[in-house]
Design a protein that fits this description.
The chain is an alpha+beta fold and about 230 residues long. It has helices at about 5-20, 90-95, 165-175; strands spanning about 40-50, 55-65, 80, 90, 120, 130, 135, 150-155, 180-195, 200-210, 215-220, 225, 230. It contains three helices and 13 strands, in the order H-E-E-E-E-H-E-E-E-E-H-E-E-E-E-E.
Length: about 230
């Protein structure tokens, strides 16, 4: 697509969006007028995090029927997550019944919801960035060299073992009388951002679970789970 055509398309999309909002009618966003949106997301369990010992790292791959390259899509390829309604944290609920009220609270929603946080399609992992936002060498770099077309990540699933959210250790050793395994489960609604219409569009709903046993944890995204993570 030519630059002239792309600019014209962007202007048309913005005008279309503003007219829709002025009429109190949400703009209809389709592949034919503005952004293409993913219709499928698959996940791969990579490994337990080296920084957060009780969390599993997942990388995701996006697809749509047109075979869109979302990493180079004009909408910038941003993906976010949210939990509209809290799920059920059975570990926290049982601890409260046993007379404990953990300060870290229930783990029943995602912890990095959009628009404050997001992933960028085409980048798996994290890295130190320069003033232009480009990756450069640094001590915290953890970019997946095997990341490929339409992938993004990592998504860290599971309880944190970092103070003050040292939940796994707390439930295993501090709360007396806990029944194991205990687990949490909640929904993760994934959304794709269209910069032409300033609109986050949900495209899939995942189920996240994390299970604590006396000496290990298991973290899952839908039916894809980590191996037993000793802790």
């Amino acid at each position: 697509m030519s630059c002239k055509r792309l600019v014209s398309l962007a202007v048309s999309c913005v005008v279309f969006s503003l007219l829709g909002y002025l009429a109190f009618i949400p703009p209809k966003v389709t592949a034919s007028n503005c952004c293409r949106f993913p219709t499928l997301e698959t996940e791969t369990a990579v490994e337990a995090s080296s920084s957060y010992l009780t969390e599993e790292q997942f990388k995701m791959t996006l697809e749509d029927p047109q075979g869109t390259d979302f990493a180079s899509d004009p909408s910038d390829g941003m993906v976010g997550e949210t939990t509209p309604t809290p799920g059920t944290d059975g570990c926290y609920a049982e601890a409260k019944k046993l007379g404990h009220a953990p300060a870290f609270g229930a783990f029943d929603t995602v912890t990095t919801p959009y628009p404050t946080y997001h992933w960028v399609v085409g980048q798996v992992g994290y890295c130190d960035t320069n003033s232009s936002g480009e990756c450069e060498d640094g001590p915290l770099n953890n970019v997946d060299p095997t990341s490929a077309y339409n992938q993004f990540g990592y998504d860290f699933v599971g309880w944190s073992d970092v103070y003050p959210d040292y939940a796994v250790n707390y439930y295993q050793k501090t709360v007396k009388g806990m029944t194991f395994p205990c687990m949490t489960s909640f929904k993760q609604v994934m959304a794709y951002y269209c910069t032409f219409t300033f609109y986050w569009r949900p495209y899939v709903t995942n189920t996240l679970t994390a299970k604590i046993n006396p000496s290990y944890v298991v973290d899952c995204k839908n039916s894809v789970c980590s191996p037993d993570i000793d802790y």
